[in-house]
Design brief:
- The protein has one domain: Rossmann fold, CATH 3.40.50.1010.
- Helices cover 53% and strands 8% of the residues.
- It has 6 helices and 3 strands.
- Strands 1-2-3 form a 3-stranded parallel β-sheet.
- The longest helix is centred in the first third of the chain and has 15 residues.
Amino acid sequence: MGYFVDTYAIIEFLGGNKKFIKYFKGKPITTILNLMELYYKILKDFGRKQAEIEFNRFSNYVVELDNATIKEAMKFRLKYRKKNKDFSYADSVGYIAAKKNKVKFVTGDVEFKKLPNVIFLK
């Protein structure tokens, strides 16, 4: 079984959090939006050279997004916003992309803790 790794999961993996390692065996997936967040975080904390290295490393994990995924993700975001959960655009798209690709969504984002199809780790 494959997994969808969100930005949180990738950062924890890069930081050596052993709880996340097994989800990176094989070939996990993510979206270009998560890669964008990762690039920014590493650029800010470690500089351009390291940001380029990690961007290139994880770019092989990116799955294509179609219009239906984007629309479903925005409906998901709106539904949960009404329940006082404020999922980001990237998180909303990632969650739906995981569902569409029939894989579990791996995150440490507490907002996802009780949702179906989520592996929540800290």
